[in-house]
């Protein structure tokens, strides 16, 4: 890892709803990576959803209330880091839009946006992490989520860190940048289209021959893990933070792989 700064950087970890409720190991892995890089990590109890579901649904009033709460909870930190390009993108790019008619809140939103980052890009671009003390025995393929890639410009950063993991082989898919069909409310409003999109995505994943699928957004991972499992695939699905932190002792996203003798046990 990079040399720890003389004065620890204070980082507010925005854990995200999905991590908190379905995959806490991603939060612990994120905290470990940040602490190993010399940061002082806090997880404010007052944090909640980033407000993206309400924002995307056109519920501006609730989105503003949620955003104001997030701003109050995180504006005292040097940086805000989220293990999700989607949530980080909401805070960084859309909070200011919510408060365009409120100059005081817009200024606070801009200040928070300026110090908000997706986890892997923060490790590489801001902390300049140049070594990962982790091992993973397997071939992985990486999915570039829409928000991470297009809003947060995360593309080379995860691959640079994965190249430092001992025993790991990266197998790129032909459609690594193609949407998985999750899209938050999109998969609920347009399930048939979403299903066809994730099936095409799974075809591409399987074509790589990788035994593990990685990404930096849990929503995408849950969507793809579900389809892989329903199609009988043994591909494991994990958040990249779990691999980089060497914390892969928990079951993959979506539960045990079908080959696991305990997979069918309740």
Q: How do the helices and strands line up, and which of them pair or pack?
A:
Elements lengths: L8 E5 L3 H6 L1 H13 L2 E4 L9 H5 L3 H15 L4 E4 L2 H14 L4 H12 L1 E3 H8 L8 E8 L3 H6 L4 H7 L3 E5 L15 H4 L1 H18 L3 E4 L2 H13 L5 E4 H5 L22
Parallel strand pairs: 1-2, 1-3, 3-4, 5-6, 5-7, 7-8
Helix pairs in contact: 4-6, 5-6, 7-9, 11-12
Which structural class fits the helix and strand makeup?
A: alpha/beta
**Gap from first CA to last CA:** 40 Å
Give the SSE order as H and E letters. Answer: EHHEHHEHHEHEHHEHHEHEH
Q: Give the tally of β-strands.
A: 8
What spatial order of strands do you see in the largest sheet?
2-1-3-4
Proportion of strand residues: 5-15%
Model regions low in confidence, pLDDT < 50 over at least 5 residues? 257-266
From the spread of the alpha carbons, the general shape counts as globular
Give the C-alpha Rg. Answer: 18 Å
Based on the coordinates given, report the CATH architecture of the largest domain.
3-Layer(aba) Sandwich
For the report, how would you describe the main beta sheet? Answer: 4 strands, parallel
What do the pLDDT scores average to? 92
Q: What would CATH call the class of the largest domain?
A: Alpha Beta
**Can you count the helices?**
13
Helix content: 40-55%
And the CATH topology of the largest domain?
Answer: Rossmann fold
How many separate domains make up the residues?
Answer: 2
Would you give an account of this structure?
- With 266 residues, the chain is of the alpha/beta class.
- The chain folds into two domains: 9-124, Rossmann fold (3-Layer(aba) Sandwich), CATH 3.40.50; 131-244, Rossmann fold (3-Layer(aba) Sandwich).
- It contains 13 helices and eight strands.
- It has helices at residues 17-22, 24-36, 52-56, 60-74, 85-98, 103-114, 119-126, 146-151, 156-162, 186-189, 191-208, 218-230, 240-244; strands at residues 9-13, 39-42, 79-82, 116-118, 135-142, 166-170, 212-215, 236-239.
- Helix 12 (218-230) links the parallel strand 7 and strand 8 (236-239).
- The chain is globular and about 50 Å long.
């Amino acid at each position: 890892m990079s040399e720890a700064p003389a004065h620890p950087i204070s980082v507010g970890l925005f854990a995200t709803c999905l991590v908190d409720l379905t995959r806490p190991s991603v939060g612990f892995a994120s905290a470990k990576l940040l602490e190993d890089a010399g940061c002082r990590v806090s997880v404010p109890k007052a944090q909640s959803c980033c407000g993206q579901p309400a924002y995307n649904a056109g519920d501006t009033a609730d989105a503003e209330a949620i955003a104001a709460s997030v701003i109050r909870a995180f504006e005292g930190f040097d940086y805000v880091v989220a293990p999700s390009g989607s949530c980080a993108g909401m805070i960084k790019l859309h909070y200011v839009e919510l408060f365009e008619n409120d100059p005081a809140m817009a200024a606070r939103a801009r200040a928070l946006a300026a110090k908000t980052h997706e986890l892997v890009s923060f490790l590489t671009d801001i902390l300049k992490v140049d070594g990962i003390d982790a091992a993973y025995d397997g071939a992985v393929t990486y999915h570039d989520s829409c928000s991470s890639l297009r809003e947060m410009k995360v593309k080379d950063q995860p691959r640079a860190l994965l190249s430092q993991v001992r025993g790991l082989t990266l197998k790129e898919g032909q459609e690594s940048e193609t949407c998985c069909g999750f899209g938050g409310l999109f998969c609920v409003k347009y399930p048939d289209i979403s299903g066809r999109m994730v099936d095409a995505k799974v075809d591409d994943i399987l074509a790589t021959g990788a035994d593990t699928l990685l990404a930096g957004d849990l929503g995408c991972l849950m969507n793809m893990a579900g389809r892989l499992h329903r199609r009988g695939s043994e591909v494991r699905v994990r958040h990249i933070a779990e691999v980089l932190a060497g914390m892969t002792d928990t079951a993959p996203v979506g539960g045990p792989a079908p080959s696991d003798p305990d997979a069918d046990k309740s």
